[in-house]
UniProtKB/TrEMBL annotation:
This is CsbD family protein. Residues 4-56 form the CsbD-like domain. InterPro entries: CsbD, YjbJ_sf. Belongs to the UPF0337 (CsbD) family. Gene3D superfamilies: YjbJ. Pfam families: CsbD (PF05532). It comes from Rhodovulum sulfidophilum.
Length: 57
């Protein structure tokens, strides 16, 4: 498993947590940061998947 997949998944989880906390306390900036972290994590996870596919081929 590529390290980008692990790091990307961690960023998605971190982003979800930020969104939840932001919603709970009414902090729109924190929610936006969480959404950005989730997107960044999904992209990094996808890059890791591509790297895995290339390595396995």
């Amino acid at each position: 498993m590529d390290k980008d997949r692990v790091i990307g998944s961690a960023k998605v989880v971190k982003g979800k947590a930020k969104v939840a906390v932001g919603m709970a306390i009414g902090d729109a900036k924190l929610e936006a940061e969480g959404e950005a972290d989730k997107i960044e994590g999904k992209i990094q996870n996808a890059v890791g998947g591509i790297n895995d596919t290339i390595r396995d081929a």
